[in-house]
Amino acid sequence: MKTRHILSILILSLLAACSLDYDPLDTYSDVTEGVSQDSVQVVFEDKADVLAHRQTLLNLYKNGQEHWYLDMLLLAESHSDNAYSGSPSAETTPFEVNSIEGSNTNLRRDWNSHMGNIAQANRLISNIDVVSDPALTDAEKLQYKAEAKILRAMIYFDMVRIWGNVPLVTTVAGDITSETIEDVYPAYFPPQTDALTIYQQIEADLLEGLQYAPANDPQDKTQFSKSVARALLAKVYAEKPLRDYDKVIQYADELAADGFGLVDDFSDLFGVILTDPNAPPSQDNKAIDAKARNTKETIFEAQYFPGNTNWATWMYGRPLNDWTFYFTWAKWITPSRDLIKAFTSEVGDKRYAETVVFYNCGWNIYYPADNYAFMYKCRSAYNSTIKMRYADILLLKAEALIGKGDYSGAAQIINQTRQRAGLSNLPASASAGEDAITEAYLKERRLELAMEGQRWFDLVRLEKVEEVMNAVYDKDEGRPAQVYPFTSLSYILPVPQDIIDQNPNLVQNPGY
């Protein structure tokens, strides 16, 4: 008993001494744990509380632009051959030159934010069943829990691809008291779980989500629908730990049955409506709205409107709704010369003008100031940020067909996105063998999904990191010198050192 008392004091002291940020890993908070009412823990008093928290979950992607979008593009685009960091600094340049360390502040922000979002999802998952309000039906409980599990799966899918082994937290911790601390402590400072187990949890969450989540609503692509679960399952089964090409094809086909397809005009995905549609964008010809939302191609997106706008747009270039707003400093995610060369290798690719734009600016870090390249897929404060779209999943079906040896079938899918882009079909030689069709496929995904946070993960999934990234520094004159070569240890990033310092059960990833 004396030993237990001493241990309790030591652990409580540790909890009090650390500077901790997010639940449930690090901080005890009623945000995660609810409040005590007559000695009974109450998290959601009634249906209104549940609906309010559900809306919070639906808004996480929209309100979490830094870790869901901005930092994801830094990792997937600037850490690949698609982009330079854009605005050189201690937080961005390491992604560009391959010198990322555990001290990187972006990684710490992303880890904490993702774990905080998982805590918010777990809060609903763990507590909704005990809400006694008769207005909240059993069917609604199943639906809202399924939505939260789809969200949790989405977060863990990003985390496991970035860091590999991460803590698996599926419950909320109880109150810390002298009697419970030894049981509760592991919930606040859990060890890492192996990547395979993380993927299996993602799979389980999505399969349950597929049962009880709402069907796709063609008029509202901000929901955690069955279609979002299907798209995530297709992406999960394309990854090595659970790779199953038949299931990739199955869920891609089910999305088509849900009504998803390619929009006819690629600019519908990222375009804007200007005051004068016949004049070029300028201070006098402002964007007044997004060109389209809820297209048949979008699976999940965050939407922005006048009065509740997308702030991330001014991080990448000129916001077309306000031509000069914050356009006085170098922007993030500058398209690379190597990407531009890939776009211009075939004449007439319509996606080029929707992905890259050139402006006159006040800096010349990577390009001459009078003809500077900018990322163009988030061009106004009214543009949606698209987390998932059908072209991604359709092309993953092509990847699955390649894996099954059906090279002509894969070529037919690749030709669909090429034709929309204004290009001719692949030559017959492109599907003559595995190497040729894989090269064509990787190029097509690169151009179709450029600046959407996919490129790095494509290279990792197909084990092309060393081949592509160790060669790009010599052929791209605008890229700063490579600090470290890419190896198999580069496929996952370092766990933030601050987090390791706070949680004695965490270990650093090899190579860092």
UniProtKB/TrEMBL annotation:
Residues 38-237 form the SusD-like N-terminal domain. It is found in: Cell outer membrane. Pfam families: SusD-like_3, SusD_RagB. Residues 1-22 form the signal peptide. The keyword Signal applies. Keywords: Cell outer membrane, Membrane, Signal. Residues 385-512 form the RagB/SusD domain. InterPro entries: SusD-like_N, SusD_RagB_dom, TPR-like_helical_dom_sf. GO terms for cellular component: cell outer membrane. SUPFAM superfamilies: TPR-like (SSF48452). The keyword Signal applies. Belongs to the SusD family. This is Membrane protein. It comes from Draconibacterium orientale. The lineage of its organism: Bacteria, Pseudomonadati, Bacteroidota, Bacteroidia, Marinilabiliales.
